[in-house]
Design brief:
By secondary structure, this protein is mainly beta. It contains one helix and seven strands.
């Protein structure tokens, strides 16, 4: 199992890119932290989830001038 944003999911063996696509995330508007390390966007296809991984995904919404993070890990414009 892989813990993603606090939820245990059966995604062992899937790439970060595959998971983001299947979950409906826009890869260009998220940041992914895997086991306390930020995964560079260029490595999303090559980074494979392993049993016991802990993942946080933050979605960015709005423009670059004014954004904030809400409790569901989404950044909202002010």
């Amino acid at each position: 199992m892989v813990r993603i944003n606090g939820e245990n999911l059966d995604v062992v063996g899937k790439s970060v890119a595959d998971y983001l696509d299947s979950a409906g995330y826009d890869r260009m508007r998220v940041a992914v932290e895997l086991n306390s390390n930020i995964v560079p966007k260029a490595q999303y296809c090559d980074t494979i989830f392993k049993d016991g991984d802990n993942v946080e995904i933050v979605s960015f919404v709005g423009d670059r001038k004014s954004t904030r993070l809400n409790s569901s890990h989404q950044v909202l414009s002010r």
